[in-house]
Design a protein that fits this description.
Strand content: under 5%
Radius of gyration: 38 Å
Largest sheet: none
Shape: elongated
Helix content: 55-70%
Distance between the termini: 124 Å
Order of helices and strands: HHHHHH
Length: 153
């Protein structure tokens, strides 16, 4: 049983079509066409684009585009299963995520501390202004002298 990429290459070669002709006609980069033929899906831009590439490639060489998309998806799942089997024995590497989480947590804590410091500073200024206002003599205290001079009656 041939793989997806081998089938594409075989059908293209049977028809005497070059990758350059397909690339020129479909406007798909030749690297992506080579990656399809080599079942090297990691070098393709993404699943939606990949399906479009497969459809365009298949239509250009005269194959059923939907059948080839299904064949591509089957090959993709085979590769995923193969990688999953290899991952069971692969060494576990440290992830970068805990470092990122820690950095985000530290940043959030610093923002909260800065906000609390600003709030305390504002409250302190309000209290000190309120204290200064209470030190100003009022007319009710009798301590305010009227500096205006009134004509005698």
């Amino acid at each position: 049983m041939s793989s997806f990429g081998e089938e594409l290459r075989r059908e293209r070669e049977l028809r005497g079509i070059t990758l350059r002709e397909i690339a020129d006609s479909t406007k798909i980069n030749i690297r992506f066409l080579e990656a399809l033929e080599n079942n090297d899906f990691k070098h393709l831009p993404g699943e939606i684009f990949n399906k479009g590439f497969v459809r365009a490639y298949a239509a250009h060489i005269g194959l059923d585009p939907e059948r080839m998309v299904n064949s591509y998806l089957l090959e993709l799942s085979r590769q995923a299963e193969k990688e999953k089997g290899q991952m069971k024995f692969a060494p576990i590497l440290k992830s970068e995520k805990p470092k990122r989480r820690r950095s985000k947590l530290i940043f959030i804590i610093l923002v909260i501390l800065a906000a609390l410091a600003a709030l305390i500073l504002l409250r302190y200024r309000q209290w000190s202004i309120a204290g200064e206002i209470s030190d100003i003599p009022s007319a009710e205290d009798g301590r305010v002298e009227d500096s205006r001079s009134y004509p005698a009656k």
